[in-house]
């Protein structure tokens, strides 16, 4: 299976992701929103970056369970409880330098939101992967 990522010349430059991702896939993997929950289902303590680290670990485990890798990801949506652009940039930087960094070279969206599902939750990651 081949995944084609492109930035059309008529669109603005991006900080690492691609505007368009095209995959000829036989199977598609949809992960539930990956939250900063430890194995005991509690929100990990710490700031948003500590929570990103847990989301990275959880996403890696979910992708592995599906037989996928970060390189198979064709779409990500990152939700962060903040209206601060500096925080959004820090979260993006943490994800794009993490063990699942390849997942963020694809079509990606980063959003600041008012709240997420768990008390104290500051970040969530929505992931779609394509397998040949």
TrEMBL record:
Gene Ontology terms for molecular function: deaminase activity
Superkingdom, taxonomy of origin: Bacteria
GO cellular component assignments: cytosol
Name of the protein this chain belongs to: Enamine deaminase RidA, house cleaning of reactive enamine intermediates, YjgF/YER057c/UK114 family
Membrane-spanning parts: none
Pfam families cross-referenced by the UniProt entry: Ribonuc_L-PSP
Species name: Amycolatopsis saalfeldensis
Matches recorded under InterPro entries: RutC-like_sf, YjgF/YER057c/UK114
Lineage: Bacteria, Bacillati, Actinomycetota, Actinomycetes, Pseudonocardiales
Family membership noted in the UniProt record: Belongs to the RutC family.
């Amino acid at each position: 299976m081949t995944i084609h990522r492109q930035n059309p010349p008529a669109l603005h430059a991006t900080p690492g992701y691609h505007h368009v991702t095209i995959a000829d896939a036989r199977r598609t993997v949809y992960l539930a929103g990956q939250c900063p929950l430890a194995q005991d289902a509690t929100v990990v303590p710490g700031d948003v970056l500590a929570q990103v680290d847990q989301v990275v670990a959880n996403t890696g485990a979910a992708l592995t369970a599906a037989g996928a890798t970060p390189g198979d990801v064709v779409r990500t949506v990152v939700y962060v409880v903040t209206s601060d652009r500096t925080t959004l940039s820090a979260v993006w930087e943490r994800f794009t330098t993490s063990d699942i960094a390849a997942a963020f070279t694809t079509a990606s969206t980063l959003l600041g939101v008012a709240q997420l599902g768990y008390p104290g939750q500051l970040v969530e990651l929505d992931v779609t992967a394509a397998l040949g």
